[in-house]
Amino acid sequence: MPWSLEICHIGLLGTGDATLIVATFQDGDEEVLKRSSVLIDGGRSEATGMVEEVLAVYGINDDAPLGAVAVTHYDADHFNGVRDLIRPPQKRRRTDMYRDVRVYDRGRTQNVTVPAQGTTSRSASIIANFRNPATKNESIIHPYSYMIKDNCERNLVTRDVLSSVNQLRITTNARFPFDDPRVTNAGIRPPYWLIGQEILWNGENLADFHPDHAPRLTCVSANTYYRTVNGGVDVVRSGGLSRERNENINSLGFLLTFGNFRYFVGGDMESAQEDALLPYFRSLRNGNGPLLHAMKASHHGSNLSSSPNFLKTVKPNVVIFSCGQNNQFPHPEERVISSLHQYTPETKYYNTGENWRIDSEFGIPNISGVYPRNKDGSLIIDHQVNYHSHVKIFIEQPDNDTPPQEFSVNFYCPEAGPNLNHDANHDYVPARLRADYFTI
Ligand SMILES: [Zn+2]
Fold it and tell me: So which residues are the signal peptide here (predicted)?
């Protein structure tokens, strides 16, 4: 088995995203010769234990540390867990396996005053201010920024990226104001800086490991900018949104490729940004296969994402909803499920928050926000059940010269089948592992 790839959508308690991607190259004796791993988002703080449990299962530890972590955006259910993972060992007592992890995020959001053209006297202080994470404008990400600064500052790849065009206090009508020499001369990287960059290997030389076939994870959108067909970037802006939505539309998005297999993960991105990526996805397709074989539904299946147009154009084989056990939101939302049924009836979809597959075979699943509760009304939190709610995708090459021909989705489901309406009296039955197979 030469190259293989696993994508684990980690089952969390409550809402949140945490997706582990592991690419491995083995020789004929199945000895691991090359490996890299990227964690995309880390759920909420409470998710840390579960994330570390999964990392351990994949053999990621002090001797084989995590390669990179990507924070798609600054919502608590995505980046708080990352913050807590990378706490220094004296505070977290267990490991320093994140000491050298490369950290990618969407960049800094604080106010930056760029000097008037032709002046350089203030440049130094501007850069210093830009790199100082503690301003009241980013109080939400303040603890995260400090944790990075204390531990991974030198590995924060996106340290000099300024993410918010609105904070840029220059007068210009340019579509790409960050190309202004007043900005570039100040050493500030634009919000689209990460787009087009591969983060699984980060330029590492894979010459000894059949590099043409190696899985690759490439940033395709950031801060409302997105990758275009010709390898450039363009921007979709949405005005007048709430703070939450404004954060979501800035999510980083990544395309994972392995041979002809294509997978998309985009944080809590909304439809405007997703739809803008369609021409790029279309340009990658050869043959009649789907634009994407698998995708994590953005924003946990919210109907602000995964538009009917997006789904019917992409026609994914597989959609994963990262909703988490006992999710406090009614995710995935009915409109998204209905769109899947209506426009892509062949698509199979899975939910990290449920122990069973939900698909057309079972009808509309529990999407009403009714979740199992104790008699006193508190949510039932069952770690044993939660542990079994990861949804994993597995792919491997049949041999060194052949790209992967199929992928599988591994998940747990109860023997009982379609008891899709939770209620306080429902008894969980032992879950069992199942796998569905898809041709690439
Ligand atoms: Zn979220």
Answer: none
In this predicted model, what pLDDT tens digit does every residue of 240-260 receive, in sequence order? 888 788 889 999 999 999 999
User: What is the distance in A from the centroid of ligand 1 to the CA of 405?
Assistant: 32
3-class SS letters over 361-381: CCCCCCCCCCCCECCCCCECC
Q: How far is the CA of 126 from the centre of ligand 1 (A)?
A: 32
Under 8 Å between Cβ of 409 and 438: yes
Tell me how many degrees the CA angle 281-436-415 measures, rounded to the nearest 5: 140
CA distance 409 to 434: 8
Number of domains within the chain: 1
Answer whether 415's CB lies under 8 Å from 356's CB: no
Distance 18 CA to ligand 1 centre (A): 10
**Per the domain annotation, does 164 fall within a domain?**
no
Residues flanking ion ligand 1, Cβ below 5 Å: 75, 77, 268
Write the pLDDT tens digit of every residue in 158-217: 988 888 766 566 666 677 777 777 777 777 888 999 999 999 999 999 999 999 999 999
- Cα-to-centroid distance, 50 and ligand 1 (Å): 17
At residue 301, the 3 state secondary structure works out as helix
- Going by C-alpha positions, the residue among 292, 299, 356, 338 that lies closest to residue 318 is 292
Determine the Cα–Cα distance for residues 34 and 350; give it in Å rounded to an integer.
30
- Residue 172 forms part of a structural domain: no
Helix and strand numbers, DSSP H then E, in the chain = 12, 16
Residues 319 and 195: their CA atoms lie apart, in Å, by 23
Is residue 183 domain-resident? no
Q: What's the gap in Å between 424 CA and the centre of ligand 1?
A: 27
Closest CA to 4 of 281, 286, 396: 396
Q: Which domain holds residue 432?
A: 3-106+191-439
